Amino acid sequence: MAVLVFALHMQGLKIINPGYTDWLYVLNSDYSTHQLGWEYFRRLPWSFPIGKLENYAYPMVSSIGYTDSIPLLALFFKLFDSWLPSNFQYFGFWLFSCYLLQAFYGFKLGRRLSANQWIGVFSGLFMVIATPLLYRTPHPALCGQWLILASINAYFMQDYKRSLIHSGSVTLFSTFIHPYLFIMCLGIGLSTYLKWLIQQKIDRKAWLIWSISTLAGAYVLLYINGYFIIHSEEAMGLGLGEFSANLNTFINPLEFSQILPALRTAFSGQYEGFAYLGVGLFLLISIQLFNKKIGKHFIKISKQPITLVIIAMTLLAISPNVSFNDTSIINFSLEHPIFSTFRSNGRFIWPLYYSILLGALWAISKIRDQRFTLPLLILSLAVQVFDIWPLVNRKILHLQTYQSPLSASWELLFDQVETIYMYPPYLPSYASSGDALHFLKLGVKNKNQLSTGHLARRDDFIADSLFKQLTSQFRNESSFAQGEAIYIMDISKLPILINSLDQNLGVVRKLDTYLIFIPTGSLTPALNSLISQPPYEHLDSINILRLDEYMQLDTNSIQVLSIKDEASQSLCQETRSYFNRLGSELANLNFRESYLGIFKDGRIMYEERSQHKINYATVLPTDSILCAIDILSGGANEGNISSIKINGTEASLNQRGINIVTINKSGEVIQSACFDTYEQCAKIME
User: Fold this and answer.
1) What are the beta bridge partners of residue 662?
2) pLDDT range class, residue 103, cuts 50, 70, 90
3) Nearest CA to 154 among 143, 146, 162?
């Protein structure tokens, strides 16, 4: 059954082949992040901590764990890197193993909780089609949910010595898989130690030794894996709550049920707490509702230490924004870095999901007439499979051959330099969606260090500093770093290079749909020879204008301005000086302020600047008609909108920055434009 479900879910067994890597190179997917993390890691010399990852997302120093590349397998196969082929992956084997181990521990738990052999068999079957497992297949490390089952299995072992050893081993092992799974295993493991203390199988000293040893061992292993390279304050990411579990999680199938409809959620990130039970399980549970003996058993189980831990994890999963459907019930703040580090807290609902599943199967084994046990199990499993068939049969893989759209000349270029700065750094996309993947692939092959790549947690201080540093260099506000480095960006970013090109600080070439900027200090004779011939293109014919230059193209027209989001950060001195000479408030624009204005014949007719959303309406006479103008401007915190309606028709591009609509003397809109002066003061004019 495990092999069948795996084959259905993965469109066959092809991905188990370690030499087949193409399925992992998918634009904007987690798979590509995991594989690229491993490929960069395997080519690095050993260092300490042994999980340290460099060159990927340069200049950050991170961990192989933060690419979710499963440190256990990354470290193991790195030992044999010189014997491995260049195309090698272990994620298919890992996923296959997860399905087998899920079935194995499901069977073990079923047999441990009931003498009825069919409970063990169907426990394994239900575990293989567990919705949290099937839903998490696009994220291989999180498919190690069998570790949760292994921890629960250790808890219910009868031999306390074996129980302690197995529990501690699973907890320490989980540090090499994924931090979220580790926290779940740690909680269940500590409850196991507490159980044997309460039952007086161990004394307080032994309990303390087991607890402290497990915590200390886990800390050391997490440190070795490199998880503490980035400090928690720098790796917090989004806050807790967006990715919580909705109270409807057990009855909300999203789009994966053939019987029940999808329910609403309060936050878009609540998919992280997906734990739909399924109609088959509902059937098993409903059979037990009127069984008073079962209720007594559950009251007894509720007093177990593991129950307290699962309740605590459940409370964490639904916090701090407790919601049902799209209604927020309780909303409070948890500001400690540890909570923001584990921001996808909805995942902590998984132990409760598996407990409910096990409880339902165990309860079936307690029905008075055992002749009905097998038929009920078969019926419930059939209903479950039918209900969640869209999830079981979900096609999530792209089993195509990876083909980079980049021309062969890129590889020659990468071979000439050591460092590649993608600008802006750390984006997944530049000229096309997800195209950072292609450059990272080239970087792996040529052992370059690239300032792009996705990390589960990144150092935002370094990311922000690098962006400001590169921008400052392009604007000729600081010097370029010495060494062999080139800068790659989308062609729309060319205006930011104006100052550098005017000062002859480097050269720019176009290759495919990208710009390549090479500072003079990096322009070696070999590199200069390479870029001086086709297919590298010069860009002499591109027309670049600053905002003030654009305003002066036609001084015999009406120009209506409105700001959306933010427009002050890159409002250059030349443009500010121009508006200052006009006596305009734009010269003094501050961060995220709203602004609107009307200019006629190069002079101010009306303008307004504010920290709040502003609007203005007027009627202006033109040579042909009366022109009705309605303007709305909202900064990032005040509606984030730009609207410029001319005679009732929307003409604003409504993009970030300063939106401009130009009207001729006859009252006709002749051009709409937007200068993203949050990012750059000039733009390419077509």
Assistant:
1) 559, 671
2) very high
3) 162
Question: Cβ(632)–Cβ(640) under 8 Å?
Answer: no
The model's pLDDT over 10-26, given as tens digits with 9 standing for 90+, comes to 778 899 999 999 999 98
CA neighbours within 13 Å on the CB side: how many for 158?
3
Q: What CA–CA distance (Å, rounded) separates 623 from 626?
A: 8
| Residue 354: exposure state from Cβ atoms within 10 A (0-12, 13-18, ≥19) | buried
- End-to-end alpha-carbon separation of the chain, Å? 60
| DSSP secondary structure letter of residue 221 | H
Rounded (10°) CA dihedral 65, 70, 73, 78 = -30
In whole angstroms, give the CA distance from residue 206 to residue 363: 34
Q: What confidence category does residue 321 fall into, taking pLDDT thresholds of 50, 70 and 90?
A: confident
Asked, as a colleague might, if the bond just before 59 is cis with ω within 30 of 0, I would say yes
Spell out the residues 6+ positions from residue 200 whose beta carbon is closer than 8 angstroms to its own: none
Amino acid identity at 373: T
Closest CA to 84 of 38, 29, 139, 34: 38
CA distance 527 to 549: 35
Kind plus residue range of the DSSP H or E element containing 620: strand 614-621
Q: What is the pLDDT at residue 479?
A: 82
Cα 578–chain centre separation:
42
Confidence bin at 56 (pLDDT 50/70/90): very high
CA distance 587 to 590: 9
User: What pLDDT, on a 0 to 100 scale, did the predictor assign at position 338?
Assistant: 59
- Provide the CA 594 distance to its chain's centre, in angstroms: 31
pLDDT at 369: 66
Rounded to 5 degrees, φ, ψ at 327 are -105, 125
Give residue 162's Cα distance to chain centre: 39
- CA 195, CA 205: separation in Å to the nearest integer? 14
pLDDT band at 460 (very low <50, low <70, confident <90, very high): confident
How many C-beta atoms surround the C-beta of residue 50 within 10 A? 15
In this structure, what are the phi and psi dihedrals at residue 607, rounded to the nearest 5 degrees? -155, 160
Kindly state the DSSP code that residue 19 receives in the 8-state scheme.
Answer: T
Return the HEC string of 66-89.
HHCCCHHHHHHHHCCHHHCCCCCC
Would you put residue 653 in left (φ > 0), alpha (ψ -120 to 50) or beta? alpha
Q: Give the model's confidence band at 75: pLDDT under 50 very low, under 70 low, under 90 confident, else very high.
A: very high
What are the backbone angles phi and psi of residue 76, rounded to the nearest 5°? -65, -50
Residue 504 class from Cβ within 10 Å (0-12 exposed, 13-18 middle, 19+ buried)?
exposed
Please tell me the pTM assigned to this model: 0.84
Task: Tell me if 542 sits within 8 A of 557, measured CB to CB.
Answer: no
Rounded Cα gap, residues 396 and 9, in angstroms: 8
Supply the pLDDT for residue 535. Answer: 92
Flag whether pLDDT at 378 surpasses 80.
Answer: yes
**CA pair distance 19, 11, nearest whole angstrom:** 17
CA distance 186 to 172: 8
C-alpha separations of 334 from 240, 338, 339, 342, 681 in Å: 7, 9, 7, 12, 40
- pLDDT range class, residue 187, cuts 50, 70, 90: very high
Structure tokens given for 281: 């399980």
Which residues, at least 6 apart from 463, have a Cβ–Cβ distance to it below 8 Å? 60, 425, 426
Dihedrals phi, psi of 406, to nearest 5 degrees: -75, 145
- Cα–Cα nearest to 294, from 359, 347, 204: 359
How would you class 345 by CB atoms within 10 Å of its CB: exposed for 0-12, middle for 13-18, buried for 19 or more? buried
